[in-house]
Amino acid sequence: WNQDLIKQCFTNEVSKIILSIPLSHRQCKDKLIWSKASKGGYTVKTRYHVVYEWLKASSSWEPVSPQIVPVEFWKWLWGLKVSHKFRLFGWKGYRGILPTKTTLFKLVSQTNS
Fold it and tell me: pLDDT tens string for the chain (113 positions)?
């Protein structure tokens, strides 16, 4: 440990705790590990799952896709071998959030109220 730097950056109490952590005798480099992934690497997919689980635990949260639509439909839609923008178009169409004149008018009306 660089004791002087630690003591300079932290309180005495925190410095003692940090300095009490034993260092490895092997001279290996540190690396960042994302504990939510099996291989330790950070991906958007693993972050999505973490956020999804966190939101599910919230009492006021409702899933984006209503339970009326079978999971198979969403798997089929997202698995289509087409451009991502077409899959997104289908999803937005189902959710009723395509930027049409009607939806934009409703949005503007709500913000002006």
Answer: 899 999 999 999 999 999 999 888 887 787 777 777 777 787 777 777 777 777 667 655 555 555 566 777 778 888 888 888 888 888 887 777 777 777 677 766 666 65
Q: How far apart are CA 59 and CA 38, in angstroms?
A: 28
Q: How many helices (H) and strands (E) does the chain have?
A: 6, 0
Which residues in the chain belong to E strands, given as ranges?
Answer: none
Report the distance separating Cα 37 and Cα 43, nearest Å.
8
Question: In which residue are the tokens 């899933």 written?
Answer: 63
Q: How would you classify residue 17: left for phi > 0, otherwise alpha for psi between -120 and 50, otherwise beta?
A: alpha
The residue assigned the tokens 């949260």 is: 61
DSSP string, 84-97: HHHHHHHHHHHHT-
